[in-house]
Design brief:
Largest sheet: 9 strands, parallel
CATH class of the largest domain: Alpha Beta
Oligomer: single chain
Structural class: alpha/beta
Radius of gyration: 26 Å
Helix content: 25-40%
Distance between the termini: 15 Å
CATH architecture of the largest domain: Alpha-Beta Barrel
Number of strands: 22
Strand order of the largest sheet: 12-11-10-9-5-4-3-14-13
């Protein structure tokens, strides 16, 4: 910085001195005791970006590479504007890939034909991770573990699709093709696909939704169709198996969930594993709750996974309004928290698409109320919204109401202390003043071998604190002046690591010198 620029004096927790040698022999000034900043709210604010049926992204198959990129960047920018901190991007809709996979074909939802690569070529997942991280957003890769073909599919299966390479593992079930969870080779294939993404991409999480065994299909007479897993069931019995068929099916799913979790941790311990099961485990749990029995129908024993801590976060899909007594949002949320024996994150899923502001949908206030209920429930620390398209449309002014209300300030994802509880070293921070604008500037330098994931910067003007969260790759920040040209009195800077641990803040008193 040129010597004739106005320099700032830096007061840290450890010393009071003019930090920047370019400022020359600035006089050390006395600053009265620094104010400890208030703790930042810890809250997961996520949104699903669904690719199946082109629900969210891409908006239609066959868009150009640039159109796909522009749409995704628009969604990430929207997430930042809404002060979200994570996106959950669907990368495997139906044994296909929204990325360059060595094992499965390109998805038709991307290019219009299964197996056709983007042209000009790019890797959408690599692009999504890079752009999300540039904005300080976590990127979780969302996989469907068993679906092999969705009813919306139009193109023929590619030569390397599992329905062609291993048709014995794939069953036609109603309007879908489904990989048989009873076949060990199916579990192995899903594991291989998930671990390939974990190892090759810098993702922050792996996510699996509520589709385990498929939702029951009916024939033309309205009768329930039995899932056609007779061959794998008979193989199990011939091997000496003694479980009932329903318990065997649940054990098949249990095995996949457990293996995904431990194999992710063996590869990259900091990558979170999350599950978003159906919001009701079993009717009658708790007593006033009715509805669909996911334990008996989907063979997903989600309560068991939670009790055993087989994931880092659970996002039960609580897709009902607060006023419905048999599927009460608050009652169900409390029940899920009470099952959380291992202290994992509970981040309920919310049905954003129901917000229409019309008589057939919900008002925006319903979602705001659900956020308030989540915050009031001890042990629940965030929300995930389905899906991104509704945030893009903004019905009933929900985006504006969010940022004017519960999401008025930025936040950090809660720390996953069972993965890592050691905070990073405090950063080296230098301050100066921009010669043109007069705004205070902050340079940011990590300490230690651990990469900084985010910077937490809190500034004080008078008694009011403002919070900013920046990507860890950033090395410079200009503290904005408020109306009337008033500048900050103080800044506190912390480093945040990949697991959400925050360093001790470096607290700086900002004092101009002649």
């Amino acid at each position: 910085m040129p010597k004739n620029k106005v320099c700032a004096l830096v007061l840290s927790l450890f010393m009071l001195a003019a930090f920047d040698a370019e400022c020359g022999q600035s006089q050390v000034s006395s600053v009265q005791s620094l104010t400890v900043p208030p703790p930042i709210r810890r809250e997961f604010r996520g949104v699903w970006i669904a690719s199946v049926e082109n629900i969210d992204w891409p908006s239609q198959p066959g868009l150009s590479t640039q159109e796909q990129k522009d749409e995704l960047v628009g969604m990430l920018d929207r997430a930042v504007a809404l002060r979200l901190n994570a996106v959950i991007l669907q990368v495997r809709p139906a044994a296909d890939a929204m990325y360059a996979s060595p094992y499965e074909p390109w998805s038709e939802y991307l290019t219009g034909r299964m197996g056709r690569a983007p042209n000009p070529w790019y890797d959408p997942l690599e692009f999504a991770v890079t752009e999300a991280h540039r904005r300080g957003l976590e990127l979780h890769a969302w996989f469907n573990p068993y679906r092999a073909r969705h009813p919306s599919s139009r193109s023929a299966p590619a030569p390397n699709h599992i329905s062609v390479t291993h048709p014995e593992l794939v069953k036609k079930y109603g309007s879908m093709l489904w990989m048989d969870p009873g076949e060990p080779e199916v579990r192995d294939e899903t594991l291989r696909v998930v671990l390939d993404v974990v190892q090759r991409y810098d993702i922050d999480g792996v996510h699996i939704d509520d589709y385990f065994y498929p939702y029951k299909e009916k024939d033309r007479r309205g009768r329930t169709i039995e899932f056609p897993d007779g061959n794998s069931w008979r193989k199990y019995l011939r091997s000496g198996g003694t479980l009932s068929r329903d318990d065997w099916r649940r054990t098949n799913v249990d095995s996949l969930i457990y293996q995904v979790y431990i194999r992710i941790k063996a590869a990259k311990p900091w990558v979170k594993f999350g599950i978003s099961p159906f919001g009701v485990w079993r009717p009658g749990n708790p007593p006033q709750i009715g509805g669909f029995d996911s334990y008996a129908e989907l063979y997903g024993d989600s309560r068991k996974w939670l009790l055993n801590g087989w994931a880092d976060y659970f996002t039960p899909q609580l897709y009902w309004p607060t006023f419905r007594p048999d599927l009460s949002y608050s009652v169900l949320l409390q029940w899920w928290v009470e099952q959380n024996a291992k202290g994992r994150h509970i981040w309920p899923g919310n049905y954003l698409d129901k917000v229409t502001g019309t008589q057939t949908g919900w008002p925006a206030q319903e979602l705001l109320d659900q956020i308030s209920i989540t915050r009031a429930q001890r042990g629940a620390t965030g929300n995930v919204f389905f899906s991104m398209r509704s945030f893009m449309f903004g019905r009933d002014s929900l985006p504006e109401k969010l940022v004017a209300g519960p999401y008025a300030s930025r936040t950090l994802v809660p720390a996953s202390t069972w993965l890592d509880s050691i905070p990073p070293l405090s950063p080296i921070v230098r301050v100066g003043r921009d010669a043109v604008t007069g705004a205070s500037t902050v340079s940011l330098q990590p300490q230690g071998a651990e990469a900084t994931w985010l910077w937490l910067i809190r500034t004080r003007i008078g008694t009011d604190w403002t919070t900013e969260v920046l990507p860890g790759l950033q090395r410079f920040y200009m503290i904005p002046r408020v109306a009337g040209g008033v500048s900050a009195d103080e800044v506190a800077v912390s480093a945040v690591d990949r697991n959400g641990n925050e360093s001790a803040p470096v607290m700086l008193g900002l004092v101009s010198s002649p």
